[in-house]
Amino acid sequence: MNVAELIARFEQAFGRRPAFIARAPGRVNLIGEHTDYNDGFVLPMAIDRDVTIVGAPRDDRAVRLHSTNFGAEALFSLDHIEKASTNTWSNYVRGVADVLQQAGLALSGFDGVIHGEVPIGSGLSSSAAIEMATVMAFAAAGAGGPSSPNLDGVQAARLAQRAENEFVGVNCGIMDQFISSLGKAGHALFIDCRSLDYALVPVPRGVTVLVVDTDAPRSLAASAYNERRAQCEHAAHAFGVRALRDVSVETFERRRSELPNLIAQRAAHVIHENQRVLDAVAALRAGDVATFGRLMNHSHDSLRDLYQVSSKELDAVVDIARSVPGVHGARMTGAGFGGCAIALVEDGRVGELTQAIERDYPQRTGRQPKVYPCVASDGASWRWL
Ligand code: GLA
Question: Most buried of 138, 186, 273, 290 (most Cβ within 10 A)?
């Protein structure tokens, strides 16, 4: 839906003109998987698919939202925010409102039409996008007044993560909200998930990031995610450090026999993956796409074999992609257990890769893939209409 259509929807739903448009993107992670909650390094980019809120402030403390995706409306008061058991999509908005207020910000109510073009439940962070779009909508609704949340992009991401952890109840790291907040067109973001320092790294010209949605349910994702986190904490504790970020590859290889086998295997992924991110950033800065692609491949193989969060569908996409000339690397992206894989491919080979996936993936898995070329895009923003 374009902006004119969203404005028309708003007018239809609320009988007045909207005043602002707020938006935030989904993301793919190029490399650095399951490292964020180990205080490590990640390299995501924001994609050209947004959650958008078209809205207008209200004089009272109500938030009334119409969702185009769900064809439903949610209404709540900023004075009494509770988790909803129907219209659960509104919990991301409620959660953000709740944490912003807990952080001492005085919010204004608003009416809004919310529209998501980040595929839901595909591992492209539609939830971070709705959270960051909500932060922007509250900034717009209170703008100019004493209630305007005056947050920088890092604080905004931290609060959105807190909403997801504490209100929605998903124990994610900081990566998704951070990139949705601070992404920049044409760039990936190298993030140190401990210090929250970050640096832009240009995505090289001549290559495309192709996203392939496996269309496979991510049923095990939440429990396996929490189990992996606990295993990483176990390893960090055994090594006497705060997080696996503090263990170098050399130290790990010397001391790995101190850990039970499975824990050592999980730690091996995280510790080597952190190093791969550093190497990948150096390769990208040097314009060495081939090395970058190889590191993506190593990342996937490690997630499949050591961290064991891939799936037969993700592996199928990766295998097919790697067999196409002009593909530098391919890997799963996000938490795993279904969701999306990405391939880094020469621009001139996008058509060939798309065809190979559309031909071979259904044969191998019985499922229909969805293929989207993605462009590195800007993080969350709002403006007056
Ligand atoms: C999910 C979480 C992120 C991160 C990735 C794995 O996307 O939300 O915080 O942990 O999984 O890298």
Answer: 138
Q: What is the CATH number of the domain that holds 358?
A: 3.30.70.890
Q: Which atom of ligand 1 is nearest to the CA of 42?
A: 12
374 pLDDT above the threshold of 80 = yes
Q: Which is the catalytic residue, given 39, 50, 176, 315?
A: 176
Instruction: Answer whether 0.85 is exceeded by the pTM.
Output: yes
Mean pLDDT over 295-311 rounds to 98
Range of the domain at 349: 207-374
For ligand 1, whether the C-beta of 160 sits within 6 Å is no
Atom of ligand 1 nearest to the CA of 37: 10
The preferred substitution site among 35, 36, 122 for testing ligand 1, maximizing ligand atoms within 8 Å of CB, is 36
* CA 176 to ligand 1 center in whole angstroms: 7
What CATH number corresponds to the domain at position 197?
3.30.230.10
Write the burial class of residue 149 (CB in 10 Å: 0-12 exposed, 13-18 middle, 19+ buried): buried
Q: Is 176 one of the annotated active-site residues of the chain?
A: yes
26 lines ligand 1 (CB under 6 A): no
Residues 22 and 170 in one domain: yes
Mean pLDDT of the 48-69 span:
97
pLDDT (tens digit, 9 = 90+) per residue, 190-245? 999 999 999 999 999 999 999 999 999 777 678 899 999 999 999 999 999 999 99
Atom of ligand 1 nearest to the CA of 33: 12
